[in-house]
């Protein structure tokens, strides 16, 4: 269909094609204005991030048990809780006789909300796919995730900060991932502009304690000497699957050439970065309870109703420039 339309345009009278070219110039001007719009949106995000931060700080204090919320702050009621209370009443009546025969034991009162962020990681498919069993003990020490936006006048970017309590795995208090962005039309293809896009990212060096680096594993391999025929066993470290590889990301080669696996890894990384920024950090408690997961599923079901039409994924569009030849 596209080829037919292009052909029909080429067949337009010269005077009409001349006017179409004028419209294209106007369209480029529109794209430049749109780019400025998104730059101002980024500044607005940065402004409101400062307003959200005190609330997120309070969230961290409650999660880590640094602060105990007041009775007033804990007041919350929903229809779902009402249903759960009714179910609990039925269960309680059914077991009341057994309960009388047993001595009541004091309920454990853990500090804060144990494994808050780990629970989120395990609940969200996108994150649980990255999570390995050896990552879980480390993520139990994760006490907060924050999003920081670039300062005014600086190139557009956002940084994910993963704050950890002191632990036996690494010395870092904070692990970071910086996503660099741009909001300007590509001079070679200005009509492809659809908003800010990620152009690069930077991880950080993790200062692992000796023998605790879960991103590598030690393997033993037998080697046979070609001359003497003797066999010896050597050990070497090889890459290991781990969420913490997130902080040592695959980089696009300078010439833009990447194999299919690297392209997929890069695309997934950008999508995860957006997901942390736009969903996980702002709505963490709802992912902990599972309510946000239900909302996400509902959105996916609604998108599924439109399968006959081509679906646009802004996360994919933001990275496609990296894969152009």
Automatic annotation (TrEMBL):
Composition bias, Acidic residues: 292-311
Superkingdom to which the source organism belongs: Eukaryota
Any GO CC annotation of this UniProt entry: nucleus
Biased composition (Basic and acidic residues): 88-110
A Pfam family assignment: NAP
Nucleus recorded as keyword: yes
Keywords: Nucleus
InterPro entries: NAP-like_sf (IPR037231), NAP_family (IPR002164)
Record localization: Nucleus
Renumbered residue ranges of the record's region Disordered: 74-110, 291-325
SUPFAM superfamilies, per database record: NAP-like (SSF143113)
Main location: nucleus
Keyword Nucleus: yes
UniProt GO BP: nucleosome assembly
Family: Belongs to the nucleosome assembly protein (NAP) family.
Name recorded for this polypeptide: Nucleosome assembly protein 1-like 4
Encoding gene, per UniProt annotation: nap1l4a
């Amino acid at each position: 269909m596209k080829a037919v339309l292009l052909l029909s345009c080429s067949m337009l009278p010269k005077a009409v094609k001349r006017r179409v070219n004028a419209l294209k110039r106007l369209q480029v001007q529109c794209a430049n204005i749109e780019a400025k719009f998104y730059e101002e949106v980024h500044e607005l995000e940065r402004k409101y991030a400062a307003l959200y931060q005190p609330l997120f700080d309070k969230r961290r204090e409650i999660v880590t048990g640094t602060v105990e919320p007041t009775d007033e702050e804990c007041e919350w009621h929903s229809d779902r809780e009402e249903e759960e209370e009714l179910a609990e009443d039925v269960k309680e009546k059914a077991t009341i006789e057994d309960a009388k025969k047993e001595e009541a034991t004091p309920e454990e009162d853990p500090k804060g909300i144990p494994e808050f962020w780990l629970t989120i990681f395990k609940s969200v498919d996108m994150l649980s796919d990255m999570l390995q069993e050896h990552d879980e003990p480390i993520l139990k020490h994760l006490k907060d995730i924050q999003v920081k936006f670039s300062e005014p006048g600086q190139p557009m970017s956002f940084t994910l900060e993963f704050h950890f309590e002191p632990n036996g795995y690494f010395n870092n208090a904070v692990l970071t991932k910086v996503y660099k962005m741009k909001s300007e039309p590509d001079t070679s293809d200005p009509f492809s502009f659809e908003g800010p896009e990620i152009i690069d990212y930077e991880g950080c060096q993790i200062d692992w304690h000796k023998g605790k680096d879960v991103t590598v594993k030690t393997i033993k391999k037998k080697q046979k000497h070609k001359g003497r025929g003797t066999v010896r066993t050597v050990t070497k470290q090889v890459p290991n699957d781990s969420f913490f590889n997130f902080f040592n990301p695959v980089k696009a080669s300078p010439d833009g050439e990447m194999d299919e696996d690297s392209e997929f890894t890069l695309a997934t990384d950008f999508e995860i970065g957006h997901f942390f920024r736009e969903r996980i950090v702002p709505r963490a408690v709802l992912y902990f309870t599972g309510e946000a997961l239900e909302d996400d599923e509902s959105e996916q079901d609604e998108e599924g109703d439109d399968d006959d039409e081509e679906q646009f994924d802004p996360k994919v569009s933001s990275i496609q420039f990296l894969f152009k030849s």
